[in-house]
Amino acid sequence: MSTTDLTKRNFTRQSHMIVNARYALTRGEIDIVLTLLTAIKHEDNDFKDYQFTIKELEQKTDRKWNSKQLKNTIKSLMSKPLDIPKENGKGWTIVNWFSYFDYADKGIITCRFDKALKPYLIQIKGTQIISDFRHLLPMQSSYSKRMYLLLKEYDKIGSRKFNVEELQETLKVPNSHKTRYNKFKQDVLQRAEKDINKFTNLEINFIEKKQGRKIHEVVFFIRKNNNTLKDFISNIRADYTNVVLFHTSDGKPIKCSKKGLLYYADSTNLTLNKDDAKKTWEWLHENRAKLDCFKNNIINEDALKELEQ
């Protein structure tokens, strides 16, 4: 059996059904799951036996593992199944992430995802969430990793509203977080906000909505994290091609072409020259919160009214 190179692949792909499933894992457990998710290729027709060394796992997860620690983590992971509600809301599926793990001489590990997860991880139909493992790994909180995936599903929409009790069930938080909302807010919501804004390609914030005196819902607002000019240009070229970015002082719309070039979207379709494009990219980055293409992601009273309906 050939070994699986864990070091060259960084993207995970999951069905929204998995992302919204009910489960709770420790940081070590979820890092193992995410590591193995990067081994699945888009063109795969079925799960394979993934084989790798403990040194490769250490390199990928950026932490030390010994055989005893790994065994205990795997045993704990195998005792925490996913609770996946049916898409029509009638029924559920209870399934483990993996069907088996094997640890052999010289630290060679072999494992396979459970076959019941095939519709959710291979040749996915419907909404799928693609995430970069390198954004998730630095987060110390497993809840932050889960919240990132839940919000990544809605990044193009710009907001996501959660019923507090339903979110607590999805994350399977302990009773101490259910009975004391402030603890849930501090350990889960605020921690996720801090971690996601610091480590990932998203920038988020949230507001609380009351029903009587109780916090009933939380609404997260989601934007691309464009802290650097390079990231900003990459995001525009990836998600906002041929969309009006802004209008010049004389009313000309500026767009970014599929080739990544800025141009006037008027009768001329004139591409900006190199010097003008450089200055325009810098201006766009400095004024990104005001751009036409981001207006749907900016908190305003109209957005709040729409979410309340």
Strand order of the largest sheet: 2-6-5
Distance between the termini: 56 Å
Supply the CATH architecture of the largest domain.
Answer: Orthogonal Bundle
Number of helices: 13
Specify the overall morphology.
globular
pLDDT < 50 runs, ≥5 residues: 296-309
- How many separate structural domains? 3
Helix fraction, binned, reads 25-40%
Mean pLDDT: 89
- The tally of beta strands, per DSSP, is 13
Give Rg in angstroms.
22 Å
Secondary structure class reads: alpha+beta
CATH topology of the largest domain: Arc Repressor Mutant, subunit A
- The CATH superfamily of the largest domain is known as Winged helix-like DNA-binding domain superfamily/Winged helix DNA-binding domain
Percent of residues in beta strands: 15-25%
Secondary-structure element series = EHHEHHEEEEHEHHEHHHEEHEEEHH
Q: What is the CATH top level name of the largest domain?
A: Mainly Alpha
How does the major sheet shape up?
Answer: 3 strands, antiparallel
